[in-house]
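User: Need the bound-state model for pyridoxal-5'-phosphate:
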Amino acid sequence: MNRVYNFSAGPSMLPLPVLKKAQEEMLCYGNTGMSVMEMSHRSKAYDDIIKEAEKLLRELMNIPDNYKVMFVQGGGSTQFAMVPLNLFNGSKKADLVKTGQWAKKAASEAAKYGEVNIVASSEDKTFSYIPDLDKSKFTPDADYFYICQNNTIYGTRYTKLPETGSVPLVADLSSCIMSEVVDVSKYGIIFAGAQKNVGPAGVTIAIVREDLIGKAMDITPTMLNYKTHADNDSLYSTPPCYAIYIAKLVFEWLKDMGGVAVMQKINEEKAGLLYDCLDNSTMFKGTVVPKDRSLMNVPFVTAKGDKDLEAKFIKEAAAEGLVSLKVNRKVRGMTASIYNAMPVEGVKALIEFINKFEKENK
Ligand SMILES: *Cc1c(COP(=O)(O)O)cnc(C)c1O
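Assistant: Bound-state model below.
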């Protein structure tokens, strides 16, 4: 069977050169005589892998020296607890913008440890836009201000960051990390689960400004304290070794492609083609207001809300090797997730299919 174009929201496609390299090195990594999966995380060979992964990530994202980079476990969802546990050390209040399912989950987790103030929400219109922010609603002494920068399920993204002054901005970049250039110095914490743009599930990246480390709540479990991972170079306990190794290969691939700025251009091109196609379609339409459209997740529905036609579309697309367009139970219709590893050809194949399907089903 041939490889398909996988439009899944996550886990998602990995670059083919990365999979090939992993295959080559599967049985015998370098001169170690074993696979990375079998190797001690205290070995020299593994130390080189994890150090190189961090170095490449720092280079690709231009991470300033006063930020720690950590490879932790538990996915994005564990960060929903880790953030408040580590940052609720002053007023125990956090501001949060409710832009979808992941922001909601972050809010309810934080509310277990402190007070969460929802400064704005787009729930009134099924999270189809990023709400405007009114600074007078911000909590001046909040311990942090929280956003989900790219809303995977609803397909929205921030194009402008909230101005939070001295309150640290915490952002969930799980579905957009390294898809476009970000200025890390604008954030207190960036975190991202790997399985959308970085590698296999199992490793989570946390980029934390140094002054925010070491003031966790007393009840914080050791493994959920950023200080534990910062002080031990992500090797306090056995890390997700193989996932970090694949992430390293993805970083090498991205660097070879020209880095994040080049990838951003490619992503803008891919997303642009697909949104143009949907805007010109009479059968389908995108669900997000144009100014807030995600570069990574493109939700769309039939203009008439025809569920049977949507099911037929998803089924016939899959038969042509365009898979996982069916989405999360939360929203109706389709989502094409077009992360970094989705080639332009995959997006063009989808567009061709949309046009063909539209003609055949008039
Ligand atoms: C996928 C996702 C998560 C959850 O990640 P898990 O690793 O499954 O816990 C959180 N936030 C965003 C924005 C996501 O896309």
